[in-house]
Structure formats: structure tokens, C-alpha cells
Amino acid sequence: MSELSTLARPYAEAVFKLALESGKLDHWSEMLEFLSLAMQDKELAWAAVNPNVSKEDLLRLILDVGKGYLDKEGQNFVKLLVENDKITLIDQIRELYEQFRAEHEGLLDVEVRTAYALSKENEKKLSAALEKKFGKKVRFHVIKDNSLIGGVQIKAGDKVIDGSVRGQLERLAKRLFS
Q1: pLDDT (tens digit, 9 = 90+) per residue, 109-138?
Q2: 107-114, strands of its sheet edge to edge
Q3: Closest by alpha carbon to 134, among 115, 106, 164?
């Protein structure tokens, strides 16, 4: 786990508990996604790390941008992050929150890298096989990656299944030259 994830974890856990207790899992996902996207703006990101920008000005700027997107709890969360100089961790907080949510809902996020687009039929077959293997409902994120040459690379949590041509060639080269 990276240092940033370690710093973000308590905030993500607190937000997840709050969302779970209030029954607002979807709403918090949307607010965290909005904040993550907002902090990708160059000027806002610059203001967050610029020592010449006061916390009050940064907070006002983020809350102005967030009007209509952040409820009272979301605004309070932003205030907490700005006050503790942690607003730059919003991406990691969002990622951890989504991991906690997926775990709670019995979902497994799976990243599938493929050189070619998967057909709907192949996606269904792969999904069924992975659900059987991991015992959880699978949520796919398919990424087209031409460098794989062919086949697929699957990441599910901390497990990696490399069925790509590139991976097979690398393993063959390692066996031949070691």
C-alpha cells in the first residue's frame, strides 16, 4: 500500500461508515467522483498546494465549484480535508471508498486488459468464470491495450492472471535465458 493510501484510509473509512449509516452509498460515490474530477483541474490543484493561497480561500473556491454537487455533509467533509491539508488525497480517498463499497456489496472490481475488444458473449463467459473462481459478483473495467499483442490480462484485487501473448513471450524468454 502506498503512503498516500495509508494517509487516505481513515478518511475513506469514515466516509464509508457515514454513507452506510445514512443509506447514501450512491450519493457519496457521486460526491467523491465530483471532487476527484474537480481536483484534476490544473488551477484548483495548484491552489491546493500553493502556500500563498489561504485555507479559507481554497475552501471557498472548492465549495463554489461544488455548488449543486455537494450536500451539507459533503461540504463538511471538504472543510475537514482542507483544514487538515488532505484535499490532495481525494483520488485515493475515492478509490478506497469504492473498494470498501464493492466489498460491502459483494462485488469484485476486475480490470481486463485486452488487445482486441471482447464480444458480449466472451464478456459473459469470462464474467461467469471469474464469478465462479472468486465467489463474488464481478464488475468489469475493460481497457484496450495494443501492447499485449493478443490474449487478456486480468487484475482482480491483488491477483493477476496474465494470458496475454506478451506475457507468454516474457515467461518463455525468462525460461530460455535464465
Answers
A1: 888 888 888 888 988 888 888 888 888 888
A2: 137-144, 107-114, 152-156, 159-162
A3: 106
DSSP 8-state code for residue 117: P
CATH 1.10.520.20 occupies which residues in the chain?
Answer: 3-102
User: Side chain identity at 60, as an amino acid letter?
Assistant: R
pTM listed for this prediction: 0.70
pLDDT at residue 1 in the model:
52
Under DSSP, the state recorded for 140 is E
Look up cell 462485488; give the residue. Answer: 107
- Which part of the chain is CATH 3.40.30? 107-176
Maximum pairwise Cα distance, the chain: 61
